Amino acid sequence: MVEWVRENGGSVSDAVSISYPNAVAGAGLQASRACKAGERLVNLPAHCQLTYGEHTTPELMRLIEKVPQEFWGAKLALQILQERTLGTASFFRHYISNLPVAVPGIPLFYTQEAVKALEEYPPLSQQVKKRCRWLLTFAEGELAELPGRPDDPFGGQRIDGNTLGWALAMSTSRAFRVRGAEQPAAQLPLIDMCNHSFAPNCQVFPGKEGSVDLVASRNIQASEDLLLSYGNLDNDFLLLDYGFLVPSNPFDAVAVRFDVAFFQAANALSKQNTANKDDVDTVENFQESLLSELSLAGPEADRELMLRRSLPSCSPRALAAARILCAGDEAELAGRTADALGRWRDPVSPINEVKALRMIAGVAFFVLSRFPKTLEQDKQLLAGQSLPDDLSLAVQLRLAKKQIMAQLLHDLASRIKELAMQPVQQTVAPPHERSSTGKREYSTIACRGRHDCRHPVNIGVRSSPWGRPGRSALHSMYAVIAMVIAMQ
Ligand SMILES: C[S@@+](CC[C@H](N)C(=O)[O-])C[C@H]1O[C@@H](n2cnc3c(N)ncnc32)[C@H](O)[C@@H]1O
């Protein structure tokens, strides 16, 4: 490929060599000498980038247009397949013949056992099934009808589900969007041999006249792998499109569907037997309208929340939703936007914060308890007999999700404990002292405004401002800590 790029008007630095770093990642690029930050390592001219567009034949373009945008990778896959069927007549023949014969880590190619193991985490297994269904329908419908027709872009060669699956894997695992998000993705020969790291040493930039440059983003030592970041992607994305995952991936998350009843049930769960009359049970207009601002209520709602492993990055929308649902009345949230309510350093009040964090802990605990296998069982599975690669990846994926929930619970418990340790600076009226309207009176607690910790509240048994003695926040905090301990 190095020679092919040079012969076709591109450049490859003498610092670039092809390597085989390990069996998992496959081939890669390596620095054969030290490189300076900013040094251009590869320049790939526009005509050496495999994509579709103006040069694509009308027959192939008509087919590409039938692919829904959500399966963008399949559009490019069809162009790859046409180059493959052209054989030695294709300008990209060297590139095509150097592509891997498979990307076995991609769930599209899993055995039934591995697919079943992935089903423990439905947000991903549903996407896998959707992709498989579309691929088979397209191959058995549109593609199966082509051979023998004058508008067949593949010259009579039959493209079945497996062949389309291979091309789809090639595009999702190797394509770049160097021309902008709205433009078709492109395969970048040679550059696409760089493996992934969240701490990369190279970057790809648009160059002159549609060319693309691979540039050292820091000083690189001789023998270091040349690595790109494929993006701040979660493990679902990495597995689905690239066939690998990153243990302790800082961008990994657990997808949870927001539902008021679910959050309320999680709230009750986190308190175990300490439910009292201050429990969140109805949603008032001010709450509904703030939830709509977060796009968590209403007909256009996007209810997917991504929970992460630590409180600061947990999920601003989930935190905002919990704070909203735990607010006693409109005045408590006065002056706050839905966005501001998602900032973890800006609690509404210590009382509200403990309730909200407890609610999220309930959600995390509920999610964790819905996995059929425990975190420990998954660890044992991976430590035991050697699993087939696909099954091992499926178990690693769901184990990583469980670890995220367990770490989040741990973080929540620490934060709740921290709030509990705050000294009482002023006597506060218990919230069960209600006004004549039956609403809680917050004027005595004065937990309003942006920085509401003017009156830190001890949530210990004696001074619990939000429950009768014996039904205290501390009690509930113990329940959450007990959950965390039980999970670890
Ligand atoms: C753009 S290609 C990189 C070149 C590829 N290794 C090859 O042999 O041609 C992306 C593929 O490389 C592998 N890969 C890249 N980075 C990896 C990593 N950090 N861990 C495991 N596999 C990786 C995956 O199979 C992925 O689908």
Distance between the termini: 49 Å
Helix content: 25-40%
Q: Major β-sheet, in short?
A: 4 strands, antiparallel
Shape: globular
Overall mean confidence score, pLDDT: 84
Low-confidence stretches: 425-478
CATH topology of the largest domain: set domain protein methyltransferase, domain 1
Number of strands: 12
Q: Report the order of strands and helices.
A: HEEEEHHHHHHEEEEEEHEHHEHHHHH
Radius of gyration: 28 Å
Q: How are the strands ordered across the major sheet?
A: 1-4-9-8
CATH superfamily of the largest domain: set domain protein methyltransferase, domain 1
Number of structurally distinct domains:
2
Describe the overall structure.
- The structure is a single chain.
- By secondary structure, the protein is of the alpha+beta class.
- The chain has 2 domains: 2-242, set domain protein methyltransferase, domain 1 (Alpha-Beta Complex), CATH 3.90.1410; 254-487, set domain protein methyltransferase, domain 2 (Alpha-Beta Complex).
- Helix content is 40%, strand content 10%.
- It is built from 15 helices and 12 strands.
- The protein has helices at residues 2-7, 58-65, 72-86, 93-98, 112-118, 122-143, 161-174, 235-242, 260-271, 285-293, 316-325, 350-370, 375-383, 389-421, 473-487; strands at residues 11-12, 16-22, 26-31, 40-44, 175-176, 186-187, 195-196, 202-206, 212-216, 225-228, 254-257, 304-307.
- The strands form 4 sheets. It has a 4-stranded antiparallel β-sheet.
- Helix 3 crosses helix 7, helix 11 (316-325) packs across helix 12 (350-370) and helix 13 (375-383) runs antiparallel to helix 14.
- Mean pLDDT is 84; it is low at 425-478.
- Bound molecules: S-adenosylmethionine.
- Residues 24-28, 100, 103, 173-174, 192-193, 195-196, 242-244 line the site of S-adenosylmethionine (SAM).
- GO terms for molecular function: protein-lysine N-methyltransferase activity.
- Residues 12-231 form the SET domain.
- This is SET domain-containing protein.
- One of its GO terms (biological process) is methylation.
- Keywords: Methyltransferase, S-adenosyl-L-methionine, Transferase.
